[in-house]
TrEMBL record:
Tree of life domain: Bacteria
GO cellular component: plasma membrane
Binding site for substrate: R15, K75
Family under the similarity heading: Belongs to the AlaDH/PNT family.
Segments forming domain Alanine dehydrogenase/pyridine nucleotide transhydrogenase N-terminal: 4-137
One Pfam entry name: AlaDh_PNT_N
Keyword Signal on entry: no
Transmembrane segments: none
Protein name: Alanine dehydrogenase
One annotated GO molecular function: nucleotide binding
Length: 372
């Protein structure tokens, strides 16, 4: 199979879909790999590293898309990239379709087979291709939130750890999955007073067992959530219903009851965000003010630490990329129901229920699509 990896073009996105190590493994399995010139530079990989791994470089994204049977990327394809997809081609990347009707309609129209990293599952109930970037975004969230809390950035002027004689910042983390757990660990490590909310008691029991002395837990009823939010300096949004649009947990009207200058870090923004007032921002212009509350809503947070993120993502995607290349997407999905769960679009049809529900589009079952 011919595998293509273009340069990411989302603003300030420095990750790359394939590391030289991934390219080398694909080549050793008998595949041809085409990398766009300079695609790895933002993550610290030179063209020479890919060439040494047995890949070939080509100058433009158009050439990569024209040659490849399968495109491996990081972020959802931008409008100009969607025009280059074709029927029969496989796209393997993050998609986040539920809050993105334009992208969804373009991918359906392309005829391509689109497998979303964020909906591939594992046999422990996890999302193995979302997890590494959730680890990164979770660890970044208190760091960017602490910056947002600084007075010059519009924040409350509260230091995470306080100082002797002055108490620490109060941080709440809504959603205690991968993002939430990593965010809570780092915020607690910075000295903040941290509470994690979740609607899963099983998850809260686990967090309490493992981190009981480090941070507190609370059930995420609407009442508890708003009560804790009103006392918080920083609120980190980290909920997920896989593939679906994020539930809105704090309304615009409720902002009036938060502390002036509080920082909202909405990591769930890539699924539409969990605060009513969230709208996606970029690394170039990451924060904005609504009613005196500072919002940070960057949809590709891991791009800020592109080298760590690229290597972490590549470690996770590699076995799935190799299975798709070695077996073809149909056989790979038939052999692995967890990879089948990644199928979101095939040959002009949507194949993921939660996206169909969010956007009001008919869906066919992936098990039907794979045989069609
Ligand atoms: N902005 C960015 O750059 C990035 C964003 N993300 C996003 O972060 C979000 C969280 O991802 P993960 O932690 O990996 O998901 P996860 O599935 O590990 O955890 C989500 C948690 O939310 C909980 N939850 C669901 N509904 C809830 C509610 N109404 N109230 C409280 N808790 C609720 C679940 O029980 C679960 O424990 C996702 O939307 C993901 O796409 C992930 C990486 C990067
Ligand atoms: C998960 C995701 O969307 C990202 O890493 O950018
Ligand atoms: Mg994202």
């Amino acid at each position: 199979m011919i595998i293509g990896c273009p340069t990411e073009i989302k603003p300030q996105e420095f990750r790359v879909g394939m590391t030289p190590n991934a390219a080398q493994e694909a080549v050793s399995h008998g595949h041809e790999v085409y990398i766009q010139t300079g695609a790895g530079a933002g993550a610290g990989f030179e063209d020479a590293d890919y060439i040494a791994a047995g890949a070939k470089t080509v100058g433009t994204a158009e050439e990569v898309f024209a040659k490849a049977d399968m495109i491996v990327k990081v972020k959802e394809p931008q409008a100009v990239e969607r025009k280059m997809l074709r029927e029969g081609q496989v796209l393997f990347t993050y998609l986040h379709l539920a809050p993105d009707p334009d992208q969804t309609h373009d991918l359906i129209a392309s005829g391509a087979t689109c497998i979303a990293y964020e909906t591939v599952t594992d046999n422990r109930g996890g999302l193995p291709l979302l997890a590494p970037m959730s680890e990164v975004a979770g660890r970044l969230a208190p760091q960017v939130g602490a910056w947002t809390l600084q007075k010059a950035n519009g924040g409350r002027g509260v230091l995470m750890g306080g100082v002797p004689g002055v108490g620490p910042a109060r941080v709440i983390v809504i959603g205690g999955g991968v993002v939430g757990t990593h965010a809570a660990k780092i915020a607690a490590g910075m000295g903040a007073d941290v509470t994690v909310l979740d609607r899963s008691l099983t998850r809260l029991r686990y967090l309490d067992d493992v981190f009981g002395g480090t941070f507190k837990t609370s059930f995420a009823s609407a009442g508890n959530t708003i009560e804790l939010a009103q006392a918080a300096d920083m609120i980190i949004g980290a909920v997920l219903i896989p593939g679906a649009a994020a539930p809105k947990l704090i309304s615009r009207a409720q902002l009036a009851d938060l502390k002036p200058g509080a920082a909202l870090v909405d990591v769930a923004i890539d699924q539409g965000g969990c605060f009513e007032t969230s709208k996606a921002t970029t690394h170039e212009d990451p924060i904005y003010d609504v009613d005196g509350i500072m919002h940070y809503c960057v949809a590709n947070m891991p791009g800020a630490v592109a080298r760590t993120s690229t290597i972490a993502l590549g470690n996770a995607t590699m076995p799935f990329m190799l299975a798709l290349a070695d077996k073809g997407w149909r056989q790979a999905c038939l052999n692995d129901p967890h990879l089948m769960n990644g199928l979101n679009v095939h040959a002009g049809q949507l194949t993921y229920d939660a996206v169909g529900e969010a956007l009001g589009i008919d869906v066919i079952a992936p098990e039907v699509a794979v045989k069609g």
